[in-house]
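Local shape tokens

___
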Amino acid sequence: MNATEKTVTTETPVERKKLKPLRFFQSINLGCDPEFFFENPAGEIVGSEKILAKKAGHYNGDSECVVDGVQAEINPTPSNCRESLANQICYCFRNLKATLEQKGLKFAVRVDPLVDITQAELDSLSADSRVFGCAPSVNVYTEGEDKTSKIKVDAATYLKRSAGGHLHLGNYYQSFLSQQYDTYEYRDTHNCAKRTEKALKEMADVMVPILDIVVGNTCVLMDRCEGNKERRANYGRVGEYRIKKYGLEYRSLSNFWLRSYPLMSFVFGMARIAVHLVEQSTPENDYVKALFDAVPRMDIVKAVNENDYDLALQNFKKIEQILLEAAASGSDTDRYYPIKAATIKLFYHFVKRINRKGLQYWFPQDALTHWTGSYNEKGGWETFANSVVYDDMIKHQAWLRKRKAQKLAEAQAADALLLANQ
């Protein structure tokens, strides 16, 4: 070998043992407190305190729409069923529509992650509405003892406001934690309750990164608003969460999923599978290790914080097979999860369309019109994917074949003309 020659060593990837399908339990209580904005007929953002009642000292469990700074916030009653949660979101918006009509206000609902507000409007609001409404989050990736996320701007002079779409994940089986349920009849439910409680309240260093991999990174493929990068400079960075009495609040997402029921259904379905992947991981069937080995953590951080579609797509493709194995076709779980063999091609078509044409391609209605109308006419994610997305994919494939045939005919005609002129 010459001195100038270099040896190149390549590592053979270690083959991963195929994972067993998840066992499905209706064990995760799903809740949220997504924010949105009011816009007047002149296209300006208006503080929510001018329309709504101020937030009570604590959430009483009833679905409601309240003031949360400049933003408004809905607090739907949680459920372990995505469809039931959607019904509570619908209830919040129908009450909001009635309030607007009673007050004779022609205000629109803006579901954007970042908006501009005028100094005049900000100055006209109460002191409580001028400050940032949210308490600081904890960030799982921050080193040191103080893991609190820092806000870098002054609320009094910063003329932008952001809106989150935080997910509340609780243990629906909490009442089965008692040792009295460690019986033959209830043992599966009792053990699931214990695993879920541990995953949500004692394993943030595992649970939150898995949520980032499965939910946060995947949502980058759908949430393409340019304002996300600036929003995450202050709020909603990858890895942000809070441990709550009910379980865990995942705080990285924007409010984009509030635009439609299929989006909402997809996001909460992915959050549910993320919890199941953690609580059902064992040394013999380790979903967590498989996910951590599949994609570098810093690639997830970069993709989410920078809203990088191409990197997020690369990351997703690395975990695709793990998700398909977890929701294996033919198992009793596959119909409960958004990503599975029956929907994976539809999902790729869905996000490619969004990247090229925006969310409005699939969901042209504004959120208030959507949720106060026949919001469930086309179903949740799985039904929507297998009907609307499927039909669009078939039409697109037919168009691609036609275009290919036209190009081939044009090339053949050009060749024939060239030969004729020789």
Remarks:
- Confidence is low (pLDDT under 50) at residues 1-13.
